[in-house]
Amino acid sequence: MPRFKSRIEEALVHRREQGLTRQLKVLENSNGPLLSSEGSSFINFSSNDYLGLANDPELVEAWQNGLSQYGAGSAASPLVTGFSPAHRNLEAQLCEWLGFERAILFSSGFSANQALLFSLLEKDDVLLQDKLNHASLMEAGVLSPATMKRFKHNDVQHLESLLSRSPQSLVVTEGVFSMDGDQAPLDIMSCLTNRHDSWLAVDDAHGIGVLGDRGAGSCNAAQITPDILVVTFGKAFGLSGAAILCSAEVGDYLTQFARHHVYSTAMPPSQAVALSHACQMIQTQEWRREKLTELSAHYAEQMKCVPGFVDTKTPIKPLVIGEAKTTLSVADELKNNQIWVTAIRPPTVPAGTARLRITLTANHTQKQVSQLSSLLLKAIESRPVLKEEAQ
């Protein structure tokens, strides 16, 4: 048997035996609070559309206007003919809002993170990453020529010990961690990197739009300006794509050497028009963040005594169950009651920490959140092991 076929079969069997098989599901209206699957309707608590923009008529109209003005696609990479006034305007708007000199656009957060590390790092460099950083950052670090070391999650003492041995490093963290919903201690990390003549890069995929003044994100909330900021548009912006915010000099460097930027077709200019409008909505429609705050408080009040509940200041509300099969079972029970929640299992999270990744959006109602909480409590009551932990 050819080695590739054998390797694939063994890997798939191993995944099935562990209860870790992933499957694609065709969903309708999944960019809203109610989705449909195979003829059934569910309340969607798995979306990253935190501000409820993905299906907002105002934003849809903005993209349609962009299509009328620019057509469907960019037709080339940015350095050929793919850079339009719409792209330039979006970059300028991001810089003014977030306080940087340059913004470089990418088709996804994954490509932005990889472009950043691949472009900046060389053989003699040291890269220090939070242990729970996104897979795009970890993979880029492993594949880069630099020496990568991981510090314990949000552990500033461990980070300082690494920096004391490796000054002039690149420190990379997320602003908000996608599976835990917690926040990095950015104020302390900024002080440490300054003290050790190092750079701080922050991936704020899950903080931008949600935290800070006018939704300016985690760094704004912590009152710091990192050397490099990555923002993605697939969460609170309700769209897709990403940008690296940086100094003018770093921006020029990335324009020359960031291969994901240089050799990828630019995002459609119509999309850039829609993203510019999303920037305005995020900054001016404060009621969306206020709604999230109210829903978070309501959920916490009902779930605070439940084992595995993690109280966060973000829309990400993990319920840590532990064992993968039990987590899947709880998720399936919720689906049987028209609640769509995703079970997150290893290798996405460490072994023994499988969880339900529950997310709130500005489009949810208190009644829907109460329904979720009630069904979660019922699921725990029906499982003796979880019930014992609860007591």
What does the model show?
The protein has a seven-stranded mixed beta sheet with strand order 3-9-8-7-6-4-5, sandwiched between helices. The protein has a three-stranded mixed beta sheet with strand order 1-2-11. It contains 16 helices and 13 strands. 47% of the residues are buried. The protein has helices spanning 3-18, 57-70, 78-82, 85-98, 109-120, 135-143, 156-165, 186-195, 218-222, 248-257, 259-262, 269-284, 287-303, 324-336, 366-381, 384-390; strands spanning 34-37, 40-44, 102-106, 126-130, 147-151, 170-174, 199-203, 228-232, 242-246, 316-322, 339-340, 342-344, 354-359. The protein has 391 residues and is α/β, with parallel strands linked by helices. The longest helix has 17 residues, at 287-303. The chain is globular. The protein starts with a helix and ends with a helix. Helices cover 46% and strands 16% of the residues. Strand 4, helix 6 (135-143) and strand 5 form a beta-alpha-beta unit. Helix 7 runs parallel beside helix 8 (186-195).
What's the overall average pLDDT, rounded?
Answer: 94
Distance between the termini: 53 Å
SSE order, one letter for each helix or strand: HEEHHHEHEHEHEHEHEEHHHHEHEEEHH
Shape: globular
Catalogue the unreliable spans: none
Overall strand count: 13
Order the strands across the largest sheet as they lie in space: 3-9-8-7-6-4-5
Proportion in β-strands: 15-25%
Total helical segments: 16
| Radius of gyration over all CA atoms, rounded | 22 Å
Structural class: alpha/beta
Helix content: 40-55%
- Report the sheet with the most strands, covering strand number, pairing sense and barrel closure: 7 strands, mixed
